[in-house]
Amino acid sequence: MKPALPLLLMALFLTSVGFSGMAAQEASSAHVWRESVKTDANRGTVYNRYTLTGKFLKAPQRGDTANRPALVVDCNSVKERKGKAKFEAASLLVGAALKIDYVEPSEIRGTSYYQKIAARYRMNDGKEEQENWDPGSDKASASMPKDALKKILRAQTVDITVKDESGTPIVMKFDMPNATAVEQGCNVDD
After folding, report:
1. Same-domain status, 181 and 121
2. 3-state DSSP call for residue 154?
3. Mean pLDDT in each 10-residue stretch from start to end of the chain (190 residues)?
């Protein structure tokens, strides 16, 4: 019976090493830009989409949070442009209705106001920056300006805070992998 105990312990050790190796591999593969090819039937165009999922540090009270937050970058396909791909849009997908602020334009013409989402982001635990981003058509996402995207792509970590429709903060964290494929695939620097 005694020789069986070392064999049992060795089997348990090897099993635990195998599982920890799989967990480390799954964790590292979770933080990658996933590329997909999409078709816009309305415009008859093909475009590339790069998606990076993050995690909620403070999740919204309501909404579809099962999909986790995501950064999405769309660009025209190289085949469509017959040469270089071109940056089209970047979005923050939250999955919950966001608070829309009505911002007065710098030049007043009548009574029109711009719809904006107040977004605060901090890169690499540095100084927090605040910008007003355009809401997505679903009001559960925000369109990110190209300048903000350029900065975010060069970071190691990014914390983004927006507010839900009741004004409660939603905090998200993105561990940023190497973004060379996104930068080159969408000519972000142009």
Report:
1. yes
2. coil
3. 48 44 43 88 85 94 79 79 78 94 72 86 95 94 95 96 95 95 85
Tell me which DSSP letter residue 100 carries.
Answer: P
SS (H, E, C) 140-186: CEEEECHHHHHHHHCCCEEEEEEEECCCCEEEEEEECCCCHHHHHHH
Residue 9 has a pLDDT of 45
Residue 168: give its domain's CATH number: 2.60.40
The terminus-to-terminus CA distance of the chain in angstroms comes to 71
Neighbours of 167 (CB within 10 A): 7
Q: What is the CA 186 to chain-centroid distance, rounded? A: 16
pLDDT of residue 131: 96
Amino acid 182 reads: V
Q: Determine contact, residues 153/179, Cβ cutoff 8 Å.
A: yes
Residues 84, 173, single domain; the answer is yes
Domain of residue 7, residue span: 1-30
Q: Do 94 and 148 fall within a single domain?
A: yes
3-class secondary-structure state, position 93: strand
- Do 119 and 160 meet the contact criterion of CB atoms below 8 Å apart? yes
Number of domains observed in the structure of the chain: 2
